[in-house]
TrEMBL record:
Higher taxonomy: Bacteria, Bacillati, Actinomycetota, Actinomycetes, Kitasatosporales
Protein name: Ester cyclase
Organism annotation: Streptomyces ureilyticus
PANTHER family hit by this protein: ESTER CYCLASE, POLYKETIDE CYCLASE SNOAL-LIKE DOMAIN
Stretches assigned to coiled coil: none
Pfam families: SnoaL (PF07366)
């Protein structure tokens, strides 16, 4: 679970504190586990400074805190403050930016060349997939991996993400899919045709960012027409 630490301090020597943060980044290069940080200054009290530091997890934050370089910088920071800084430790329980990023990573992973990645860092074990083209929903990570394997075996393809909107625990992505038909697809032997379709997917994410449910809508009829299936029906 993503972890955030708030460092609250009072100082009239902000420029020196700011430079010290640059020093910390330089000293911990290659060791630092923080993924993002920012510093805010209180509009009503310019001596009131809050630094927000994000980590992949609490454990990674503790690894960072135990670095000797972090301890050195903290002691220097205390010397620049008018009182002892305070720390607030937060487990992130909602992060719409993370959800959108993971949805984008999943589309990229599905289309990756070579062996399909495990996806267990993106999809929950109890994932529930809704696809109106399937007689039954796919439930579980293994089931959706098999579904993806079917598509990957039939086409070489890429996704282009056209729009993405995150709200609450949902991420809606409008995409364009382009592929080359290379293998059997629902009984249709390889045609070698270049095909494309558009679609929209809504993913629901849990607190740690993993995707737990998905709803797909896409132009499957248009795809079948491009593969020549509708021409055969007319005959």
């Amino acid at each position: 679970m993503t972890f955030v630490q708030l460092i609250d301090c009072k100082t009239s020597r902000f420029d020196e504190v700011n430079r010290l943060m640059d020093t910390w980044v330089e000293r911990t290069k290659g060791k630092r586990t923080a993924t993002h940080s920012l510093i805010g200054k209180d509009r009503s009290d310019s001596s009131h400074i809050i630094e927000i530091v994000e980590f992949p997890s609490y454990e990674e934050a503790m690894r960072n805190s135990n670095l000797p370089e972090t301890d050195e910088v903290f002691r220097e920071m205390v010397a620049l403050c008018e009182e002892m800084p305070t720390f607030t430790d937060l487990d992130v329980v909602r992060d719409e930016q993370l959800y959108a990023a993971n949805a984008g990573r999943l589309f990229e992973a599905i289309a990756t060349k070579g062996e399909l990645p495990p996806l267990n860092d993106l999809i929950a074990e109890n994932y529930h997939d809704h696809d109106p083209a399937n007689d039954q929903d796919n439930i579980g990570l293994d089931a959706i991996r098999r579904e993806m394997g079917m598509w990957r075996g039939a086409f070489d393809f890429t996704f282009t993400l056209e729009d993405q909107i995150a709200q609450g625990d949902r991420v809606c992505t409008r995409w364009t899919w382009n592929g080359t038909h290379k293998g059997d697809f629902l009984g249709i032997p390889s045609t070698g045709r270049t095909v494309s379709m558009t679609g929209t997917t809504i993913f629901r994410c849990r607190e740690d960012g993993k995707i737990v449910e998905g709803w797909w809508q896409y132009d499957r009829l248009g795809l079948m027409a491009q593969l020549g299936v509708l021409d055969q029906l007319e005959i």
